[in-house]
Write a structure and sequence with these properties.
Elements (H helix, E strand, L loop, with lengths): L2 H11 L10 E2 L10 E2 L8 E2 L2 H15 L3 H4 L12 H8 L6 E3 L3 H12 L8 E5 L4 H13 L4 H4 E4 L10 H11 L3 E7 L11 H10 L3 E5 L11 H4 L3 E4 L14 E4 L46 H17 L1 H22 L4 E3 L12 E5 L3 H13 L2 E2 L1 E3 L3 E4 L8 H16 L1
Parallel strand pairs: 2-13, 5-6, 5-7, 7-8, 8-9
Antiparallel strand pairs: 1-3, 4-10, 9-10, 11-12, 12-15, 14-15
Helix pairs in contact: 1-14, 2-11, 5-6, 8-9, 12-14, 13-14
Bound molecules: pyridoxal-5'-phosphate.
Length: 423
C-alpha cells in the first residue's frame, strides 16, 4: 500500500462522520462500478430517506385527497414551515427570517423588487464580474425594468490583473468610492467558478455604511460554510437546495429576509396568497396583509413533492451538525490540496484560495495544457469514473463533500487525475 493510501485509511478510520456516507445513494456507471462523486457543488447525492418522504406525500394524497392539506402526516398547508428551523440553523438566522420557496433566480427577482429601489443618483448595482450568468441576467433585467441600462448602472468588481480571486480590500474600496450611487450590492457567498469564499461580514458592513441594500447568492454556500446572516446584517439572501443541501434536481429554493424588514409593509413586493396572513387567508378577502418575516414574500402554496427530499436532507444536517461538517470539510479539502501539490505540481494549478477561511469544500483547478487538451483531461477523468465538472473557459471543479465523501474518494480522484493529465 502506498503511503498516500495508508494515510487515507487512517483519516477515514478517525472520521466520526464517516457513517453518514451510507445514508446516501452513490451513483454507479454502466459497468456497475461505483463512481467517485466530487460534484456536490452541482447536484448533491440523494439521501436514502428521500424516497420515503416523497412516498409519504403520495400515499397521503392517495388516501386523503384534499383533506391532506390539514391531516396528512405532515400537513401540506404548512409544509414549508418544517424546513424553517433547520434552514435557520444552517444560515445563522431566526426562524422567521427564512423561508423555503420557489427557486434561486425567482427569489432573487422577488428580493430585488423589494430591495433594489433606485432613487435619484442612488441607482446602481454592484456585482462581481464573473457572477453566475443567471444573476447577471436577473440584475440586467431588473435595471431595464426601472428604465436603467447595464452600461451606466451596473458596476462590476473583478480580481486584479494577473490574479484569479477578489481581494476584500479592493471590493470595499470600490464600494466606498461608488458610495452614494449604490442602490444594491449583490455578492456570492462562495464564488461558483473559483470556489473563493468571500469575507462577507466586512463587505456587508461596507455596503451598508455606503447606504446600499445588500443581497447574497448563497447557492454554493448553504450546507457548505458556516453562515451568520442575522449577525452580518445583509438585507436578503437567496439559495438553491439541489447542491450541498441534497434536495434533488430543481428542488425548492430558499430565501432570507433580515428581521429588520419583517414588518416593512411599506416595501413594494410582488404579492401572492401564500404570503398573506394564514389566520385570514381563507376568508378570501381582497386586501393583502403580509405575514411578518420572510414568509410574507411567498407567492404560491408550497410544492410538496419537491420539498419532501429537502426535509429528508435537513434531518441529516441536523444530526451531523454544520460545525462538525465544516471541520471535516476543511480537513478533506486540505487533503485534496496537499495531494495535488505533492503529486501534480506544475501540471495542475489550484485557483481556489489556500486559506481554509477563504474557501468551502470545492477546489477549482486549471490544467497546465492548451484549452482543448485540458478539457480532454476532464473527459479522461470522467471516463475513469470520477465525477467533477468542467466550466468554460478552463476550470475543472472538484468538491469533496463531508457528508458523503471520504479521504479514500479524494485519493482515488487524484490517482485518476494523475493518469489523465499525463496521458
Ligand atoms: C451561483 C448560482 N447562482 C444562481 C444559480 C441559478 O439557480 P436556479 O436555476 O435555481 O435559479 C446557480 C445554479 O447553479 C448558481 O450556481
Amino acid at each position: 500500500m502506498s503511503p498516500d493510501a495508508a494515510a487515507a485509511l487512517v483519516h477515514d478510520a478517525a472520521d466520526s462522520l464517516a457513517g453518514f456516507a451510507d445514508e446516501f445513494h452513490h451513483p454507479f456507471d454502466g459497468a456497475g462500478r461505483k463512481l467517485v462523486y466530487l460534484c456536490g457543488h452541482s447536484l448533491g447525492l440523494q439521501p436514502k430517506t428521500a424516497a420515503g418522504y416523497v412516498e409519504q406525500e403520495l400515499k397521503d394524497w392517495q388516501r386523503l385527497g384534499v383533506l391532506g392539506h390539514h391531516v396528512a402526516e405532515r400537513p401540506w398547508i404548512e409544509y414549508h414551515q418544517q424546513a424553517s428551523a433547520p434552514l435557520a440553523a444552517l444560515v445563522g438566522a431566526h426562524e422567521t427570517e427564512v423561508v423555503a420557496m420557489n427557486s434561486l433566480t425567482v427569489n432573487l427577482h422577488l428580493m430585488m423588487v423589494s430591495f433594489f429601489r433606485p432613487a435619484g443618483a442612488r441607482n446602481r448595482i454592484l456585482v462581481e464580474k464573473s457572477a453566475f450568468p443567471s444573476d447577471r441576467y436577473a440584475v440586467e433585467s431588473q435595471l431595464a425594468f426601472h428604465g436603467l441600462t447595464a452600461a451606466e448602472h451596473l458596476i462590476e468588481v473583478e480580481p486584479r490583473p494577473g490574479e484569479r480571486v477578489l481581494r476584500t480590500a479592493d471590493v470595499i474600496d470600490r464600494i466606498e468610492r461608488e458610495g452614494g450611487s449604490l442602490a444594491l450590492v449583490l455578492l456570492p457567498g462562495v464564488q461558483y467558478l473559483t470556489g473563493q469564499a468571500l469575507d462577507l461580514a466586512p463587505l456587508i458592513g461596507a455596503a451598508r455604511r455606503a447606504g446600499a441594500a445588500v443581497g447574497l447568492d448563497l447557492a454554493h454556500s448553504i450546507g457548505n460554510m458556516q453562515l451568520s446572516l442575522n449577525e452580518w446584517n445583509a438585507d436578503f439572501a437567496v439559495w438553491c437546495s439541489y447542491k450541498f443541501l441534497n434536495a434533488g434536481p430543481g428542488a425548492i429554493g430558499g430565501c432570507f429576509v433580515h428581521a429588520r424588514h419583517a414588518g416593512r409593509v411599506d416595501l413594494p413586493r410582488f404579492a401572492g396568497w401564500w404570503g398573506h396572513d394564514p389566520a385570514i387567508r381563507f376568508q378570501m378577502g381582497a386586501q393583502f396583509r403580509p405575514i411578518m418575516g420572510a414568509q410574507g414574500w411567498q407567492l404560491s402554496n408550497p410544492p410538496v413533492l419537491s420539498s419532501a427530499p429537502l426535509l429528508a436532507s435537513l434531518d441529516i444536517f441536523r444530526r451531523a451538525g454544520i460545525l462538525r461538517l465544516r471541520e471535516k470539510s476543511v480537513a478533506l479539502t486540505g487533503y485534496l490540496e496537499r495531494l495535488l501539490q505533492t503529486r501534480l505540481r506544475g501540471l495542475v494549478e489550484i485557483i481556489t484560495p489556500s486559506a481554509a477561511a477563504d474557501r468551502g469544500c470545492q477546489l477549482s483547478l486549471r490544467i497546465a495544457r492548451p484549452a482543448a487538451a485540458a478539457k480532454r483531461c476532464h473527459e479522461r477523468l470522467a471516463a475513469a469514473g470520477v465525477v467533477g465538472d468542467w466550466r468554460e473557459p478552463d476550470v475543472l471543479r472538484l468538491a469533496p463533500v463531508p457528508l458523503y465523501n471520504s479521504f479514500g474518494d479524494v485519493l482515488s480522484a487524484v490517482d485518476a487525475l494523475a493518469i489523465a493529465v499525463q496521458e
